[in-house]
Amino acid sequence: MNIIGIYLAAGNSRRMGKNKLALPTANGTVGSLALQTALTSSLEKVYVITKHNEPDWLPREMALHEKCNLITCPSAQEGQSESLRCGILQAQKEKANAAIVLLADQPFITNKMIDDMITLMKEEPLIQFVAASYQHITRPPVLFSSFMFPTILEIKGDIGAKNLLRGEFFRHGKMLDFDDEKLFFDVDTVEDYDKLHHFLNGPFN
């Protein structure tokens, strides 16, 4: 199966007040952490959806990685659904069998997490999505089969694909539960950024 990553990195960082993805950490910029993970997973390619051709948070060595592909999304200002649309259109061009939607502000996802989701879809190729979850509540990332690409393209505004995991669509997919809440930590505020430093520099790291 040709399974790609869609790395959403075109947000406005409204709650942070500045570009959160460019903020430094001990292990690189905030935006580079999850991308490094995605590039070392079993994904065939990773499409990084940005507002600009050369995002200031992206290290040159990652930009030159054989799996990494930058996609500039001019309509990203209109909401997350537009960034998602840019990624899904690229997935269709690539004739991808599935695409996992990754958020650039989730620094603690792991390549095992991504690969476990991919393995489940390969084992059950008729399911339409695999959603990561914590305590049985779905959270990003989500792996979508190409069967769902046309439906995703219909989403409008500043909402993500998570809303598709409700109602009639829910019975067509699977949840994969993870027991570590930190995997789903996201950086939205200054307080979150402080927590990120604590996690990265704490006694267990």
Automatic annotation (TrEMBL):
Q: What domain of life does the native source organism fall in?
A: Bacteria
Q: Where is the MobA-like NTP transferase domain?
A: 5-166
Q: What is this protein called?
A: NTP transferase domain-containing protein
> Which key words tag this protein in UniProt?
Transferase
User: Which Pfam families is this protein grouped with?
Assistant: NTP_transf_3
Q: Name one GO molecular function term.
A: nucleotidyltransferase activity
Note the PANTHER family from the entry. Answer: MOLYBDENUM COFACTOR CYTIDYLYLTRANSFERASE (PTHR43777:SF1)
Signal peptide, first to last residue: none
